[in-house]
Each structure stands twice: as C-alpha cells, then as structure tokens.
Design goal:
The complex is a heterodimer of chains A (about 850) and B (about 240).
Chain A: H1 2-14, H2 16-45, E1 56-59, E2 80-81, H3 86-95, E3 99-106, E4 110-116, E5 122-129, H4 133-137, E6 143-144, E7 159-162, H5 164-171, E8 181-184, E9 187-194, E10 211-214, H6 218-222, E11 236-242, H7 248-264, H8 267-270, E12 282-283, E13 285-287, H9 294-331, H10 333-341, H11 346-383, H12 398-424, H13 428-433, H14 444-476, E14 487-492, H15 501-516, E15 521-527, E16 538-543, E17 556-562, H16 566-569, E18 574-577, E19 591-595, H17 596-602, E20 612-615, E21 624-630, E22 645-649, H18 660-669, E23 674-679, H19 686-697, E24 703-708, H20 709-714, H21 718-752, H22 754-762, H23 767-799, H24 812-839, H25 842-848
Chain B: E1 6-19, E2 22-35, E3 39-43, H1 50-57, E4 65-70, E5 73-74, H2 80-90, E6 91-94, H3 106-115, H4 122-135, H5 151-164, E7 169-173, H6 181-196, E8 200-204, H7 208-211, E9 216-221, E10 224-226, H8 228-239
Classes of the chains: A alpha+beta (about 850), B alpha/beta (about 240).
Chain lengths: ~850, ~240
C-alpha cells in the first residue's frame, strides 16, 4: 500500500496541471459541502453544551410565539400546545414526577437597557428563567454562583447571571462584576455569577442571552405590564430532565391529560365555547438535547435544500474529476497493459488507480477545508448579519473534519472506481499491438455519460437558483405599501431609562420637537413598534353589539399605538375620513384609524366611518370609533397577506378596562419603542445626528437599534437572500464545472479523433462541417442532459414550493432560463475545441493517426 | 481549358519543411505528368518524398513552390474549402493503415465522402455505396464495423470508399503496407482491375513487386525524380 501511495504521489507530481485542476475542482466541491455542513452541524445537529443532553425533554414541539384567547392558534384543529403560562408550568412541575427537574425559560427574548454604575446604559439581550434552570441543565458557574430556587421567589433579592461572552465583551472580564449591581430597566440587580464559557443558552440563535433573570422578577422589571401571574398568558417553554427509564409516550399522554385538567379549571378558557375544544388540546414531548428548536424549524428546510444543492455541486465536481482521470487512464492504458503483461493482476491495477484517486481527493479535501472555512465565515455573516456572540463557529470541529474526510473518501472512490475498472479491463495484447487495426472508440462513452449527468445536475441547480432569486426579488420588490427611501427607524426604551407613564407625554413632545427641527426632517412618527420590524401586537376585535367570538373565530387584528405623524413618516395616505391628530387626547372620544383589510374583514357592507369596535370582551365593543381608513401596508410578515390593522392615538389611553391583563396591556402600550424619521432628501451623517439628538434629550435613553427603514425591511429577507445567493453561487459553480467538464471532454474527444478528423478532411469535409460535427456532439450531450435535467428541475421546483414566493414551482422562466444558459455555455465550451479541430491541417492529422 | 488527356501536370514543384532552424527540402523541382486512365507507381527508399508528393497531389498539403495543374486548373494556391471540395469530388484516397472510422459501419464509411457533397439524395448515395462495395466484393459486410473485418477486408472497404465518389484519380499510399502477402496481392489485383475499367491510379510503394503492376514507374530519390538506373546507382552509393 505504501508503495502504491508513493507511486500515486509521483504520478500526481508528474502531471502538475492535472493535479492542480483536480485539487481545485475538488476543493470547490468538498468546500461548498463542508461549508454548508458547518451550518447544518452548528444549527440542526448540535447539542446544548450541558450535562447529559440526551435526557432533556421539552414540553412542546414548535416555536409558536403567540396564543389567541388562551388557546393555540389551531386549537379547534390540532390543539398543539407549545407555550405555557406560569400557572400551567407550575401545574406540570407539581404533577409530573417523571421529571427529575422541570425548568422554564421565557419563550421570546427581550432587549433590555442595562447600566452599571454611572456608565451609559447598554442594550443587551436577556432572558427570564426558572430558579432551577441551571441545575436542570447541570451547569456550574464559571465565577460566583448560578440561580437556585431561592432566587426564584417573589421578594428575593433580584439576582442576575451574566453569560461568559457578555462578561468578556461588555465588562472586559472584570472579576469584580460578581456581587456588583447592574441596573436592568433601571431596576437594581446583583450579579450572582458568570455562566461557563461556551454556554449560549437553551437555543441556537444569533442573539443569545447575555444575562438571565429569575422569572419571579418579571413583575419587578415590567411593572404594570407584568404577565407572570396571569393564568392564560402563555410565555414559557418548559424544559426538563426526565428520570431514567421513563416511558416517554406515557409521559406525553399524562402531560396532555394534565393540560386538559388544568384548562377545565380555567374560567377564561371554558367561556365562549372553549370547553368544546379542550379535549383536543395536547402536548408533544420533544427531545430537548438540542434546546428549543425555533431556529432549526425556521431554517431547517432551507438548510436541507442547500445541503442537497451543494451535494449536486460535489457530484458535478466528481464527474469532472472522473472525466479527467478517465482521460488519463486512457493515455495510460499502454502502461497498464505492460504492467499486466508482466503479471499484474486486475485487483492490483484497480488498487493502484483507486489509491491515486483517493489520495487526490484527500488533498482536495484538505484544500476544501480552507474553502469551507472561508465559505462558512461568509455564510454566517450573510445569514446572521446582526449577530452578537453567535454560537456557531466557522472553525472546523472534529465533526466537520470527519465530514470532510468522509466526503473526500467517498469522492475518491466515486470518481476512481470507473477509471479503475476501465484500466483493469485493458487487453494487454490489443494495446501492445498498437493501432494498426481500426477499432471502435468506446472509451469516450463513459465520459459523455458523465457530461450528460453534469448537464442534468446543472440544469437543476440553475433552475433552482432562478426560482430562489426570483422569490427573493419578488419578496424584496413587492408593494409593501410604505415608503422606505430617506427614512430611519430608531428603537429606544423609555421604560428601561426609568420613565413612568406620567412623564411620557413630555418626553414624546420633546422627541417630536427636537427631531422635527433637524435639517431635512419632514415627519417624525412615534409608535409602539414600527412596520416590518418583527414585532406584532394582536387582539381579538369585536364589533359593537356583537357577541364574544368563540375560540379560533377570525377576529384577530394587529394594532399599534402611534403619534399623529406616524402614517406620514412611512408614506401611507389616509383614503377615507381623517388621520390621528393632535386633538385626539385623553379628554376627547376614543378613536381609531383602520386599514382597508380591517374594513373588508369587519365592516364589509358598511361605511366604516363612525362605526365602533372594541377588543377581547363584548362589554368593550363600543370603545373605539373609526374616524379614518388608511391604505393597506405590510405591518407584520411581508410574506403574508395584509392583516387587518387598527391604530390608536398615542395621547389617548383607555381607562375603561377592568381586567388586570387588559389594564397591563394598555399601560405597556403607552411606552413607545420606535421613532420613525422621514427626510426630504438623503441625509448626511444621519445616524450620528439622530444619536446626538436622542442623547441631547436624555443621555439615559439607550439606542437599542438605529438603521435606515430600507435596511429594516430588507432584514425580513435575510434567510431568502442567503438561500438565493448560495443557490446562485452553487449554480454558477456548477455551470463553471460543467462547462469546464464539457470543454475537457470535447478537447479530449477532438484530440483522440484528430486522425478521424484528418480522414474526414481528406475525404472532403470542410472546416464548417468539422466544427458542426463537434458541436453536434456537444449539443447531443447537452440535449440528453436537458432531457434528464428538465423533469428533475420540475420535481426540484415541486420540492422547493414551500420556499417560493409569487413564483410557481413549475416556472417556465426558470426552466427556459436554465436551459438557455446551459446551452450557451455548452456551445462556447464546445466551440473552442471544435475550432481547434477545424484548424488542423489534414496532413498533420493523418500523421497523428 | 484543354488538357490534352493530361490529368495531372506538375512543374518544378518544391516542398520545404521548416522545423525550428532546420529547413528540410522534401521535394526539389519535381516535374511529373499523369494522363487519364494511367496507372503510375511512385517508388523510392524511405524518406525520398513519395508520401509528401502524394499528399500534394491529393491536395492534403500545399507545395512551397512550383506549379500544379489538375484537370488543367491550377490548384496550388486554392483556399482550404476549395481544396476540400476538389478532394471530395476529384480524388479518392487509399491509405496504408486503411483509416476507416471505427464508430461507423462499412456502409457508413463508404458513404462518408458522399455526405460531404451538397445536394446528393440519399437514394443516390446508397446506390453508389452498394455499387462500390460490390466492386470490391464487400457488399455482404455492409452492416459490419471495421473492427469486425480482417486487414485485407478493411483495405477493400477503403478502396470502395475511394471509388464511391467516382473520382478522377485514386491515390494509394502504400496500400499493401499493413497487409500480409496474400492480402497484398489481392489488393493489387483489385487496383489492376479498376485500372482496366478505366480508373486513373497513382500508387506509392517501396515494394518493387507491387510497382510492377503499374504501367509506369516514377522513381524518387532525395526529393527528386530520377531514372531507374540513376536510382540504382544512387542507392549503391548510399549503401557503400
């Protein structure tokens, strides 16, 4: 074997161009796959860095963020509960002894204003967790101590645990941090400890928590808008360690029964026909070793698709190398024949050839690791442009090294097997006899077959790339209904800066006055949240005089609290009635403006102006009078249809609610989080100016985020952009590899047929007919590739259907585009050797023969 | 243009090969005439320029200097496509190594030169192929591939291919060179028959036995046409 390796190395050294081309091709193929696998491994396959993750289970199986009226959105159909109130979590904890420990973690993360001492506050990501969270995960503090159950009791001294990464980056690893005070939302917390390095929380995300707080401190931080004690406000994901030997199916059934028992005990759930859907409510117990799978569920299909596409690139690379090796094998048949004449067996010849190809693929694999490292870094930046402390590394881990090695080995065997067989079946007598007798050239068939295969794969990749690019373009260029040029969105947190409700009116007035005075600003809008930022407040709308809707009745509407210039700041016109004005105050009747979709849903046959509606409870159904209708725009997910939306004036709190939850919601809605600034032209140094202006109002107001409105809208398409770019990259790579492959095969074809071309010319063939003949061969191969590739591309479109937007899975543009691009490249790749063939002098060609 | 029965007229033909700094005079001042219906053998030792001359006669190569009239028309300075056309219509080649195309059947090989003639209907092509193969007694192997034939049979197919286009002249370059004596004789008889039927043939050979089949023998030595006596003398000088 050692001798084989030495000989293989010598062979590769003697053909440096072949070796370089092969290694480069393999590096691209293996690199692309390893880069995507880095992402797959980092997101889909990794376990939490905790003790014995295999015994962790999560109650629930999806990343649902919201519930409507205490039930999941599909309560009447499937009733799959995945998010739970504090009360329900405690009920499980008390009654499911199968869990050694059952922890809870906040479903959605928050950005909080955090200040240490006299320093300016920072915006940091934090998460509420139960007191047993760290002990359930089996984690020990890097420094200080983690939480215990004693910390998670109302009235206990507020404590916070910092992540190691945040401690390093935000507090420069200052060891005195433990025991010191951090002001979170202006409330003092004592730092009890620092989590171990590498611990990124309970889920893979681009914004891992930088600190954790006990869930019992939620009212302390959120004040009047707390949801901790509301029985049907679901906000927690339970994650527990199951006792060894527990029957998971039986536990799941038991938990579903517990859920139903609990639901029957809740008057808010049994009211309005809720009793009828309770029997359908259940939970799914899902493996929790990988943590909460929100990102996995969001990106899983896209990643799997990329994995398939990148493996196509690898297959095309393999076909290329196989072609190169086949060509070399053909030229080495005489040498092999001599070896066989001297007694070498077929097995020996095959071993030698396969050794050479595996060696080559391993070198390619090593080069591929470099490509993969660079590729993964680029992909991570593209996939998570705003990431801080991203828990996915581009560095090759043992798993990635094993993957790359495995792929290299497989590749080597794949492209080495054919040529090895070809070599080993050389007839020594034939080869040594020379070319006196005319023989049929069968050696080019496998090469042609490989080119056909390459063409087929390339069509699939090209069509896929066109589909994804069109999807991305359709998403990005759709009519959002808002104007984005020359506009900025500033996110801030008045509550975190210590503002109380009584001081808000003054703050908002000051913000409007100071920002509108900036040069070029023509509108300043304030809003609880801005369009297409990913946040969404929804409530069930009840028209005046209507009864309470049952569970899952189509009553949901998005709502926002905004200042008078909000619609102007995003370029949305009022199309009926009037907009919100300065005259809409606490002293005037409660009003709302609604969008066209709202009118269509709730008042389809009436003039909406003057109509009244309320939310959630029938007794409030006359609370708000519609005074205007604005043009539809995308407020939430840009992939969805426009939802019904109503806007309420910033200066008009509703004091009529009696329920605590509605009161707290109303109170929280007064704290706006977004300032929208519209400039009449592209502003210079806008970001600096905006930051300075906010700091001039109050230096404690933390800028949570500041970006052009265009950038905020574009941020909605990061996954699609990534998939579109990677798919296009893979398609271009495939096209180049396929073209190079076709060129190589045709060059080899022409070289081998120089004699034949000479004969044809001797018999009267013109240059045009020689070019035509070669191009015909190219086109036949391409056509065969298309014949296989086009149906495959259609099928691929069908598989990709869920990833597409405003593009049919069977998109003729994609198929035609892919076909045209491939055909053009094939003709170019074939024309060069064809011209070379035609320029040869017949006499010279015959001499070669 | 009147040709006076002369098919080929060559005057003061030269061919020089340039390789790096070396000039090789392959042909020097050749004068040669071949009449219609004539059977000429060109002989001489290896490297004397026989095949080079045959390539120029067959318009596979161009002379460095001199004049070449084919059917009374000057052909030494024709374009590539014009030469292709004339090769296709006026000249039939028979090569030493047969030069059949391995991927084509016997029938397709013979049909090949006809496919380069614009406008010839396929029925006409098939008729000519059949006739050509019948003339060389190979019609029964039409569907075979060259690799399925013996060397003699392959050469007969090559002759049929040369005949199929009804050329003005058959140029044969060592047609027996790769054959055993029995098959070699058979091919020579075939050429003799074709000559009797009216074909003009110019054959290159270094074997005196086969040269005797021709009406006239042209001797070449160091790129020049010499008489038989001169050839003998020069050969003896070289051997001495």
């Amino acid at each position: 074997m050692l001798q084989d390796i030495r000989y293989a190395l010598r062979q590769l050294r003697t053909a440096p161009v072949f070796t370089a081309v092969a290694v480069l091709t393999l590096a691209l193929g293996i690199g692309a796959n390893t880069a995507v696998f880095t992402l797959v491994q980092g997101i889909l396959l990794r376990s939490l860095p905790v003790a014995d993750p295999s015994h962790l289970y999560r109650i629930g199986d999806n990343g649902q963020c919201c519930v409507d009226g205490g039930f999941p959105e599909d309560a009447a159909q499937t009733g799959d509960f995945s998010i739970f109130s504090t009360d329900l979590y405690q009920y499980f904890k008390m009654n499911a002894a199968e869990f050694e420990q059952l922890a809870a973690v906040q479903a959605g993360q928050g950005r909080w204003s955090v200040r240490r001492g006299d320093a300016l506050p920072k915006s940091m990501h934090g998460e509420f967790v139960s007191g047993n969270y760290f002990s359930t995960l089996g984690l020990r503090a890097y420094m200080g101590r983690m939480f215990s159950d004693a910390d998670d009791v109302e009235g206990a001294p507020p404590a916070v645990v910092l992540s190691y990464e945040a401690w390093q980056s935000e507090y420069t690893g200052d060891p005195s941090i433990v025991g010191s005070t951090l002001y979170i939302q202006a409330k003092p917390f004592t730092v009890s400890g620092v989590a171990p390095p590498g611990f990124f929380g309970d889920r893979v995300t681009d914004t891992p928590p930088e600190f954790w707080m006990p869930i019992s401190d939620e009212p302390y931080v959120r004040g009047a808008s707390s949801i901790l004690h509301h029985p049907i406000q679901h906000w927690l994901y339970p994650l527990g360690r199951v006792r060894r030997g527990t029957n998971i199916a039986a536990l799941q059934t038991k938990l579903s029964q517990l859920l139903q028992q609990w639901a029957y005990s809740q008057p808010l759930l049994t009211a309005n026909g809720g009793t009828s859907v309770i029997p359908k409510q259940h939970v799914v117990l899902s493996p929790g070793g990988g943590g909460i799978q929100s990102l996995q569920q969001k990106t899983g299909r896209g990643l799997k698709m990329l994995m398939i596409l990148s493996s196509f690139v690898l297959l095309i690379a393999c076909a290329n190398i196989a072609n190169l090796v086949l060509a070399r094998a053909t030229t080495r048949r005489a040498e092999v024949a001599i070896r066989m004449a001297m007694g070498a067996g077929r097995r020996r010849v095959i071993r030698q050839t396969v050794t050479e190809s595996v060696l080559l693929s391993c070198i390619g694999g090593l080069a591929g690791l470099v490509v993969a490292y660079a590729g993964s870094r680029t992909i991570l930046v593209l996939a998570f442009p705003d990431a801080r402390h991203l828990p996915i590394s581009a560095n090759p881990s043992p798993a990635i090294l094993a993957f790359a090695f495995g792929v290299s080995l497989l590749t080597g065997v794949l492209f080495g097997a054919g040529p090895a067989w070809f070599c080993a079946h050389a007839q020594p007598a034939d080869v040594l006899r020379g070319s006196i007798r005319t023989t049929r050239d069968r050696s080019s068939f496998p090469q042609m077959a490989l080119v056909v295969l390459q063409a087929a794969f390339t069509v699939v990749l090209l069509a896929g790339a066109i589909l994804m690019t069109r999807t991305f373009a359709n998403l990005e260029n759709q009519r959002f209904g808002v104007e984005t040029p020359n506009r900025y969105v500033l996110h801030f947190d008045p509550e975190g800066a210590g503002y109380t409700q009584g001081r808000l009116a003054g703050l908002y007035r000051q913000i409007e006055d100071r920002f509108v005075a900036l040069p070029g600003v023509n509108a300043v809008g304030l809003a609880l949240y801005s369009p297409l930022e990913g946040d969404n407040w929804g409530e069930c709308v009840i028209q005046q005089g209507h009864p309470a809707p049952g569970p899952n009745a189509p009553c949901a509407a998005t709502w926002d609290r905004v200042s008078p210039q909000f619609l102007q700041s995003i370029g949305v016109p009022i199309i009926r009635g009037r907009g919100i004005t300065e005259q809409d105050t606490a002293a005037t009747p409660q009003v709302a403006v609604v969008n066209q979709a709202f009118v269509k849903r709730f008042f389809p046959d009436k003039d909406p102006i003057g109509q009244h509606f309320g939310i959630d409870v029938p007794q409030y159904s006359g609370s708000f009078e519609i005074v205007g209708v604005f043009r539809d725009f995308k407020m939430n997910d840009p992939r969805d249809e426009v939802h019904p939306v109503f806007l309420r004036p910033l200066a008009q709190p509703f004091n009529g609610y009696k329920e605590d939850i509605l009161k707290s919601m109303e109170a929280e809605s007064m704290f706006v989080n977004a300032i929208l600034l519209s400039f009449d032209r592209h502003p210079q140094n806008a970001e600096e100016l905006i930051r300075q202006t906010l700091a001039g109002i109050d230096p404690n107001l933390t800028v949570m985020d500041l970006r052009p409105f265009e950038s905020q809208v574009a941020g909605n398409f990061t996954p699609e952009r990534l998939v579109a770019r990677l798919t296009s990259l893979f398609a271009v790579l495939a096209l180049i590899l396929a073209s190079v492959g076709l060129y190589g095969v045709m060059s080899y074809f022409v070289a081998r047929r120089t004699g034949e071309i000479g004969i044809r010319m001797a018999l009267g063939a013109t240059r045009a007919s020689v070019v035509g003949g070669v191009l015909r061969t190219v086109l036949v191969q391409t056509a065969l590739g298309l014949a296989i590739g086009i149906p495959a591309a259609y099928y691929a479109g069908y598989l990709m259907a869920s990833q597409l937007y405003e593009v049919k899975a069977y998109d003729p543009v994609a198929i035609f585009g892919a076909t045209a691009v491939l055909a053009i490249c094939a003709v170019i790749a074939g024309f060069i050797p064809a011209r070379r063939a035609a320029s040869i002098e017949p006499m010279q060609a015959l001499r070669i023969e | 243009m009147a040709t006076n029965g002369k098919l080929i007229e060559i005057e003061d033909l030269t061919k020089i090969f340039y390789t790096d700094e070396v000039e090789t005079h392959a042909l020097s001042g050749i004068h040669l005439t071949i009449s219609r219906g004539e059977y000429v053998a060109m002989s001489g030792p290896s490297g004397c320029g026989k095949s080079t001359l045959l390539s120029i006669l067959g318009l596979l190569d161009t002379p460095t200097g001199g004049r070449y009239l084919l059917n009374g028309n000057p052909v030494e300075n024709l374009s590539f496509s014009e030469r292709s056309r004339i090769r296709n219509q006026e000249i039939g080649f028979i090569f030493q190594s047969f030069n059949l195309i391995g991927d084509l059947t016997v029938e397709e090989n013979v049909e090949l030169p006809l496919t380069y003639r614009a406008g010839m209907p396929s029925a006409e092509r098939r008729k000519r192929v059949k006739e050509a193969l019948e003339r060389v007694n190979m019609a029964h192997r039409m569907r075979h591939y060259p690799a399925q034939l013996s060397g003699g049979q392959q050469q007969r197919v090559a002759v049929a291919r040369a005949l199929a286009g009804s050329p003005s002249i058959l140029l044969a370059d060592e047609p027996t060179g790769n054959l055993d004596s029995k098959n070699g004789e058979a091919v020579m008889h075939l050429l003799a028959n074709l000559h009797r039927e009216g074909s003009t043939i110019c054959m290159v050979t270094h074997d005196p036995r086969f040269a005797k089949h021709a009406q006239r023998e042209v001797h070449l030595f160091d790129g020049k046409v010499v008489s038989e006596d001169e050839l003998k003398k020069l050969t003896e000088e070289v051997e001495a």
